[in-house]
């Protein structure tokens, strides 16, 4: 990757003069079935620019899944940058697997002149969401619903590469029906930095203007764009193996963890683990993984009450790494014999050898 970065163009992207950036933007636009693209520093920026460029006149509201990144993890940017309010929608059908038209209909606010309301102007979907894939037929149904009601449709496709890989379809089948799509190049496909926003030329022109206003115009971004190209060519094709490995990890955790549960279906590269039935403490698992195997899962300081953790696999994780992980789980589960299974962690904290160690 460093060789590619060294050889990349050094144009000034604020003046749209960098060849690597322009070709990356054109390539992602073409892959997704859109007119134009804009390469930015982060996925939060591409989501927020899409909203800002779409919601020009308040009052406005946005509908999105209550678990979605744009609602929970972007520091309230929709309110701050776009003067819009969000109605988070609960997915009620299919055990909450994904939003449906019925879910959206429940919360939709018609623009009928009622001065109390902020009419729905935009629907934002996320795919994958918690590693699960939104079915194509649902995207198409929501697209028809959005058109019929004359509202914009945005996709937070930070992990859309994973969704296309899981379904085995072209990226564009999952992206053309949206007015704007944000795709991350630094998550699943492993580039150092960045996200690309795609849409029609007018939207991208507006987003570029706002990007400059927000201080996100960057100059010699060519090295980053060149390496993103490389990752699309070389890392994306390996994604299927990563998904297989995630399933292998999930099965191993349920087998070796003796009561450990994977509580969201593993459809791509994420494994959501619940240790509450296993007698294994998350903080201890995290510490032992790091000390014994050099594996960091980032919950070393987890409070005693925390029993759930998200594990995300990437292209540089091997089967040996996963086996090393499972070995630690197996070892801990064996010692956490049923007698010691911690039914009330708060009461018994530290009383048993395996807990106090
Ligand atoms: C990571 C992520 C983002 C934001 O990306 P950053 O580059 O971290 O700002 C947005 N949406 C989803 C679904 C993500 O996973």
Protein described:
- Residues 1-274 form the Aromatic amino acid beta-eliminating lyase/threonine aldolase domain.
- It comes from Entomortierella chlamydospora.
- The modification N6-(pyridoxal phosphate)lysine is found at residue 187.
- One of its GO terms (molecular function) is L-allo-threonine aldolase activity.
- Keywords: Lyase, Pyridoxal phosphate.
- The protein has 357 residues and is an alpha/beta fold.
- 44% of the residues lie in helices and 15% in strands.
- It is built from 16 helices and 10 strands.
- The chain has helices at residues 2-7, 19-32, 43-54, 69-72, 77-82, 101-107, 136-148, 160-167, 171-175, 201-213, 222-234, 239-256, 282-293, 319-335, 345-348, 353-356; strands at residues 36-40, 60-65, 84-89, 120-126, 152-157, 180-184, 195-199, 261-262, 270-274, 308-312.
- It has a 7-stranded mixed sheet, sandwiched between helices.
- β4, α7 (136-148) and β5 (152-157) form a beta-alpha-beta unit.
- The longest helix has 18 residues, at 239-256.
- Mean pLDDT is 93; it is low at 339-357.
- The structure holds pyridoxal-5'-phosphate.
- Residues 42-44, 47, 69, 126, 156, 158-159, 184, 187, 195 line the site of pyridoxal-5'-phosphate (PLP).
């Amino acid at each position: 990757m460093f060789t590619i970065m060294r050889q990349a163009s050094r144009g000034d992207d604020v003046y749209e003069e960098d060849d690597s950036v322009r070709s990356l933007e054109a390539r992602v636009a073409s892959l997704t079935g859109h007119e134009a693209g804009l390469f930015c520093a982060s996925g939060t920026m591409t989501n927020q620019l899409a909203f800002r460029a779409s919601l020009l006149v308040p009052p406005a509201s946005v509908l999105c899944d209550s678990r979605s990144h744009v609602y929970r993890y972007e520091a309230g940017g929709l309110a701050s940058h776009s003067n819009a309010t969000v109605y988070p929608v609960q997915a009620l059908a299919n055990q909450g697997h994904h939003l449906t038209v019925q879910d959206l209909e429940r919360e939709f606010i018609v623009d009928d002149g009622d001065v109390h309301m902020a009419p729905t102007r935009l629907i934002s979907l996320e795919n994958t969401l918690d590693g699960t894939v939104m079915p194509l037929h649902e995207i198409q149904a929501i697209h028809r619903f959005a058109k019929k009601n004359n509202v914009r449709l945005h996709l937070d496709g930070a992990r859309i590469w994973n969704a296309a890989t899981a379904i085995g379809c072209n990226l564009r089948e999952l992206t053309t029906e949206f007015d704007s799509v944000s795709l991350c190049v630094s998550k699943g496909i492993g580039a150092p930095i960045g996200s690309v926003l795609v849409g029609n030329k007018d939207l991208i022109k507006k987003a570029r203007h706002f990007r400059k206003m927000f201080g996100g115009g960057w100059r010699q971004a060519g090295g980053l764009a060149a390496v993103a190209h490389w990752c699309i060519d070389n890392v994306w094709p390996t994604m299927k193996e990563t998904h297989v490995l995630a399933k292998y990890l999930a099965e191993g955790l349920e087998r070796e963890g003796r009561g450990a549960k994977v509580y969201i279906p593993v459809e791509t590269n994420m494994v959501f683990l619940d240790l509450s039935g296993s007698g294994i403490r998350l903080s201890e698992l995290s510490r032992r993984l790091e000390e014994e195997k050099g594996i960091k899962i980032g919950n070393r300081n987890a409070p005693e009450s925390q029993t759930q953790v998200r594990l995300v696999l990437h292209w540089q994780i091997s089967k040996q790494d996963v086996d090393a992980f499972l070995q630690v789980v197996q070892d801990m589960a064996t010692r956490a014999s049923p007698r010691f299974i911690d039914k009330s962690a708060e009461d018994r904290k530290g009383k048993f050898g395996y807990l106090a160690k």
